Amino acid sequence: MTENLIDLDSLRPLFQPRSVAILGASTDPLKIGGRPVAELLAKGYAGDIYPVNPKAAAEAETLQGLTVYANVRDIPGKVDLAICAVPGALAPQALDDCIEKGVGGVIMFTSGFAEIGGDGPAQQAAMAERAKQGGVRLMGPNCMGIVNFRTNAIATFHPVFANPIHPGPIGLVSQSGAFGGLSYTLAMERRQSFSYMLTTGNEADVDVADCLAFLADDPDTKVILLYMEGCRDGPKLIQALELARANRKPVVAIKLGRTSAGAAAAASHTAALAGEDAVIDAIFRQYGVYRAHSIEEFFSIGCAVAVSPLPKNDRIGMLTVSGGVGVLMADDAEGRGLDVATLPQGTQDKIREMVPFAGTNNPIDATGQVINDKTLLTRILALVLAEGDYGSFVCFQGSGGRNPESRDRLQQAWTEQRRAHPDTVFAAAGFSSDEFASAMEAMGIMDFEEPTHATRAIAALSRFGAYFAEARQTPTVAATAGDLPAGKLHEVAVLDLLRDAGLPMVDARLCTDGDGAAVTAGEIGYPVVLKIVSTDILHKTEIGGVALNLADEAAVRAAFADVTARAAVAVPDANIAGCLVAPMVGGGVEAILGVQNDPVFGPVVMFGLGGIFVEVLEDVTFRAAPFDVDEAHRMIREIKSYKILQGVRGQPAADVAALAQALSDLSLFAAAHGDRIASLDLNPFLVLPEGQGALALDAVLELR
Fold it and tell me: Which of 668, 595, 683, 570 is nearest to 627 (CA)?
């Protein structure tokens, strides 16, 4: 049973406080210690508010109209949340006072810890340990705080929240405090708002995974926006993403740092390619996260999910008043994997009865006749939706949503179609007034100025819908997997080990002399390959340590002598175990399977095709271990060279089913031994023609 890494109940005093103390509260409502007091009062927070400031308490009985206390311990009532806005030197004592008081959670605005280096990281770690021992959840330090939009619990100093706030369906978690404040402005510009805004700062305790899981469990949150600079606890993040999947909560993420940050191990293709960004990108794909690459895209997709249902299928219909825009949308939709399905012929005939020169395939071009016939666009819209069986539909209506002459008519038409098709995803594209866009979004209809942003959003919604519809299960890792042997293992030992684990490996046998190699070759069947076996020689071909296509006993004996002699010259101090003899296996498609032990996410499995596809194009994909066969199939289909496995230029299709099974089995092996494996490469891994299986011809295992 997987260990539960996230305690949601312990987070409730932080995010749903019934009482708030502000340590370092200021009489000035514009200062960092004064803003939370002022905004809690101004926004009508219903819980108890306790300002704490020893100097202010000595000078007056009140602060901003509230009773002020010299110490949080002096507060007579229960305190769920304490906001710590004191100078850095006073923060540890303030935390101790909160622990003694029995505060549920502390949000620490105070900076000057891990982010500055020096003694800062040690001081931060000490505070985190004290909070843990005292049963207090700590958010920050160096944190901008949180906002609960349902209860008006404004536990932040960001000035944007002096503006009016109202609750919405978007949950935001951000490692950047400034981005949290910016996000509220961006959401308001898009006529949306949040359920929660949670910023995590230095993450001494509470991190993005905690916040993500809390939002995934929150009934008022429909979609989660995640702004992430890094991750320090991969299994915990995965557990949070699994909860989001279980509760059908789409996650849209921006992850900074797209360049590779990992050092490559010389012996491993997998290690060379498994940089930090490649792994997090794979984790996002594996767990259905939409990764945005700009702030515009981040909010555009997030707001689309907040407004719209998910489509019932990936068929998209498009209606336009501009043929060129229709082609633009169709290109974008098909490029994003949507089905630009042709209208039934009978429906096309009916449209041509209205406009003989209309484009009727899909997209449907109503042409400039919409100027002469004011009802034409809405009549075609109703007809296509009634007969097209589209899961989603986009209408480019030019400036119709802004034009007073057409705005009301279009809004009425959309109202009628929403009633007739409550489960269809609708998007209007073009120029709209704020009033028109608001009315559309109130009906669950997305409104975009840029037409391809509409098709992009529908593709994202379609992907979320498909992800939630799939039965995804994480396989259980066998508790009886056993330990790996100690010390370095040569190739034959690795092949035997993996074969015993159920992976398909070539029949390679270790021979210690030429005569034994000749006998073994006869048992295996000619032709054979012979390779030097040594834990000290990783790149055998470079030293002449491989002999191919050996056709008889004499050739095997001669090859054994030559290979061992060359190895002795090239690497004089190498420990030579002998040579392996294995059958020459031909045909099929060469692939590479690998495992890299990521410092954050643990064992990660890599897949790609061999040769130029890995060496030059780096056409590979990753998954966190373990995963099932269905996930392996999705992984295989992700590589750009996937069509080669389907058979090209007269070549037969490869046994993709056997490949998928091997990838899943490898992931189970990696998960079972993740504490010991540094890296593992099966290269080449030969995928034979369909129905003939697959097998690894070579393996290199690096243990921790």
Answer: 668
